[in-house]
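A reminder before we start the practical. When you read a complex entry, don't treat the lines as separate problems. The point of joint prediction is that each chain is placed relative to the others, so the output describes one connected object in space. Small molecules and nucleic acid strands, if listed, are placed in the same frame. In the example below there are two entries. Take a minute to note the order of the lines before looking further.
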Amino acid sequence: MAEPMSDPTHEPSRDATDDVVFRADDLVKRFGAVTALAGAGLYLRRGEVLGLIGDNGAGKSTLIKILCGFHKPDSGTLTLEGEEVVLRSVEHARSLGIDIVYQDLALVNELSVFHNMFLNREAVRGRLLQNRRMRRLATENLAALGITNIPDVSVEVAKLSGGQRQAIAVARAVNSDAKVLLLDEPLAAMGAKEGALILDLIQDLRANSNVSMIVIAHNYAQILEVCDRINVLQHGRITFDKPTSQTSLAELTDLMVTEYRTARRQLGGAVSQ
Amino acid sequence: MVTTDTSSTEPSPTPTGVGEGPAARGSTWRTFVSAFLRRREASVFIVAIGLMVYFRLSSEVFLEKPNLVNIAQASAPGAIVAVGVVLLLVSGEIDLSVGMVFALAPFLMHYAADFYGVPPIPSIILSLVVAALIGLGNGLIVCFLKVPSFVATLGTFYVLFGVVLTTSHAYPAQIPPSMEGRIQSWLGAADWAELIWGLLIVAYFHVMFTRTRWGIYTVSVGGNLLGATEAGIRVNRIKIGNFMMASTLGAFAGIMEAFRVNTIDPNLGGGTGVTFTAISAAVIGGTALAGGSGTMIGALLGAVVLAVLQNGFNLIGISANPFYLILGAAILISMIANQYLARLRRAGGT
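Here is the predicted structure of the whole assembly.
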């Protein structure tokens, strides 16, 4: 890209002009009196894994819902591969190659693995579903991503563990040729073993596909090892942007603890007055 | 009851090795049996067969043609209405008004044919279209005005009841003369007409439910509304469509029933009777009220079980009064069994 990318919302990064696939600028979103986002902006390079962390209430879920087309921002712009886009819906965003994986929310327990993997883009002939074809494609797809812990794609999702569901949700998104994948709390409510499975999957994806990912996490300790870069969202703004190699768990912890201390001081002040 | 058999086989899906030579034949059979028992329809199917055997042993005439016609005519309308009810229950909604659409539809047909001189088939179609619009109304109220479907359709039920009573002056009407003969017998009055329509409708909706996008989306909407929305499924369209289909099916069943009993009666279907029979058939057949799962074949079998029970009681001379006692118990048992089986299915997975 030729144009220099200066970003007023956070410390501009030296190499931000690299191959940026998706960016958001000056996003503002209010819900009634609550300002969830106050000018948040971020960028994502091709093939990169960006970790987005922030406290509850920092605006993470609002930001992610705007990036995936679920909410519309009150103001601000989204740019996909150099062109400004207005996302009309999740479906529209997906058709452009921006896909989101929720913390196992998006799967339908009562449907089989392969129906879930093809939900809303089923293979059909005439009006009938091509179940056999979807079953085969789903099996191939999981194998290609190195997901080997799903014994049978015909079982109901209800029977699977949290890690397996998350893997399927990720596979579903990759399956649909997503360019930008948003992973919302991929490790939430998961044991260490299950979590490791997902981290492996993210690493595999980074190595073997050209999908770019934004990983949203509350617990950043686990996320750190799979991310190329970390952004911190605080009070509706990105306040921190560093490559993982230039930051540390300690620095991020500090950042969060400082925020807690400030919050407590303010609370304490309010109480004592 | 029989349903517990299903549960006991559920957690052990043929652990014996398929490769073992001597056991191979036995295990194929066991695979077949366990695959059958795993189906939602299994318990109601076993109950239906059991009841038929029992009533055949207790009464000579049970399996004779006239009685089979009775059973067919008693189960078909319930099964047709139940198909629509299953669609709605699976999408997480309910339609209490469908029983009143059942009563209203033959009147609409009669008004069109006899008061406005509309030809027979167009009058019937007109009546079905109005039913679909009633379903549309229910769906819009539920989806956009956010009124729970139980309450919304309870309101519609009484509104339609009022419309039926007011416009008919609470008097029955004759079948329109233009429809007597072939139309009347093809659409309900002939011995097997209702059953054949019922089977065709169940078969069509079974395929739609299990083999088309609409079916999968219906399950998704009821199973995980948020997830379905986020997957880009137009959930309101699915729900509203199901309301419209349920209502139209109710109207079609009502028209056939009027043709069969040869009169258009404001009390056709006994007010709430049809609605509750259909919901019972759906539930006994293995459809969960919580949404997300259900079966058309099960609903058909449920309707047959209810008809066989009532018919059998008549035949062996037991008063019809305890019928409701058994019906109530059957609903409770099947709901409890469904809960239990669902938990087992989940536990048996990994």
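Discuss with your neighbour: Residues 1-22 of chain B have pLDDT under 50 and may be disordered. What might explain this?
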